[in-house]
Amino acid sequence: MSAITAPIRRPHAAPHFAPPRVDAPRLRAVEDVRRGHGTAYAVLIVAVLGAAVFGVVALNAMAAANAVEARSLEAEVAAGERAYGQLVATVAELEDPARIREQAMELGLQPAEAHRFLAVERRVPADGLRRAHVGASTLADPLRTVRASDDT
User: Fold this and answer.
1) Residue 30: burial class (beta carbons within 10 Å; 0-12, 13-18, 19+)
2) Model confidence over 70-118: pLDDT tens digits?
3) Is 146 helix (H, G, I), strand (E, B) or coil?
4) Looking at beta carbons, which pairs linking 106-114 to residues 24 or more positions away fall under 8 Å?
5) Amino acid 136: pLDDT
6) Of 116, 90, 112, the residue nearest 101 (C-alpha)
7) Cβ density class 3-22: b for 16+ within 10 Å, e for less
């Protein structure tokens, strides 16, 4: 199967372990563990857990206070929207042309008989006077600029 041959193993070869040294003991004594740090560690753990619980309770209280404030603001917004709706309805009622006509009749106003329009000629100056001489410094029509060469 394979062209490479495996190395030959010796069937009962003795292991090559170093003999144990007689002068070095295999076991040694361990010093007694101090128990003084256990209480300080326990106090520290209790303090950290107490601070964590206090923080969670404080955050919960602040969230509840903010929820109460949010509810009151939502109630104010709803009341403002209701008032706005009532004001829009009142304005629509007051703008009604039939109501305005009725109020005018009650005050003694009469409807206009005929509509007439007056067409004003633009060549008349704004003050109503005709200027004898139209020059660069005088305007015949205040809405139109007069040039020095224009004699109208």
Assistant:
1) exposed
2) 999 999 999 999 999 999 999 999 999 999 999 999 999 988 887 777 7
3) coil
4) none
5) 47
6) 112
7) eeeeeeeeeeeeeeeeeeee
